[in-house]
Write a structure and sequence with these properties.
35% helix, alpha/beta, seven-stranded parallel sheet, 10 helices
């Protein structure tokens, strides 16, 4: 039986698991509450760190665990992973490894040049995973959205704000298209680096305006970037400005995006959330 060991079985990995009919899914989480939640979804849940990783039972490995000073999965199990004889390994990284490009396009041939600690840590982790000599697929994810992570709730309750930073754009990806890409890579393995994003980078105020229009509500008020209240994580996104190309997932993995732009993606979320 094909068996996926998903380390850090969160939002994106769970979307993949829902597509893997007939697979055995072993997923890790950091809390006992998380174990209960995953078991309720039919996942063989393990507490990690804490319990041993059943690498001897896995054919495929996906890790979504964020690195700190080092990658915690490799620090604890790097030698075992290298020796496990896995058919396929996927590492979920971020387009933040490219850094700031003043709105220009980047692709997988663009040299990484992270400008934030988060991007630098991910690049270091990518390099550490690549050094294992395993059939590694690195997926550099753009901004993730989907059911439960869309703009509609904030637009409805009036807390949404359109933060205006002239020229700022972001690339995005619907969570179901992350699962779509991962499944394609499992079906047609081609180790390498892949950008995972849609076809249409757009400004954040454009997204909120579109969401309001879909709801039949007025657009949220505008706030200049230098006056906006944001978390450190949110502000780190605004520190970089680039458009990310996705040609390689189409040419190498045969992917056809479910949601080529935010328009289709937002419409799907609205249908799912009601």
């Amino acid at each position: 039986m094909k068996t996926l060991l998903s380390i850090g079985h969160g939002y994106s990995a769970q979307a993949l698991a829902r597509r893997l009919d007939g697979w055995r899914i072993i997923g890790t989480t950091r809390t006992p509450e998380g174990v209960s939640e995953l078991k309720a979804k039919g996942v063989e849940a393990r507490l990690w760190p804490g319990e041993p990783l059943p690498l001897d039972q896995a054919t495929h490995l996906l890790t979504s665990v964020a690195p700190g000073a080092a990658d915690p999965v490799l620090a604890a199990h790097g030698d075992q992973i290298a020796a496990a004889g896995l058919d396929w390994v996927g590492y979920l990284s971020t387009t933040a490894v490219y850094g700031h490009h003043d709105g220009a396009w980047v692709d997988e041939t663009t040299p990484p040049d992270p400008s934030t600690p988060r991007g630098a840590a991910r690049l270091k982790a990518e390099q550490a995973w690549a050094a294992l000599g395993i059939p590694l697929h690195i997926f550099r994810l753009a901004g993730i959205y989907g059911p439960g992570r869309g703009p509609f709730e904030k637009v409805r309750d009036g807390t949404a704000r359109r933060i205006i930073k002239p020229g700022q754009v972001f690339s995005r990806i619907h969570v179901d298209d992350i699962a779509n890409v991962l499944q394609a890579a499992m079906t047609r393995p081609r180790p390498g680096i892949y950008n995972v994003c849609d076809d249409d980078p757009a400004s954040p105020e454009t997204i909120l305006g579109a969401a309001a229009e879909m709801l039949g509500l007025p657009p949220p008020p505008m706030v200049p970037y230098d006056q906006a209240e944001m978390t450190d994580m949110a502000r780190s996104f605004y520190a970089e400005n680039k458009r990310v190309r996705n040609d390689k997932i189409k040419s190498d993995l045969g992917v056809r995006l479910l949601y080529p732009s935010y328009r289709e993606g937002l419409a799907a979320i609205l249908r799912a959330e009601g």
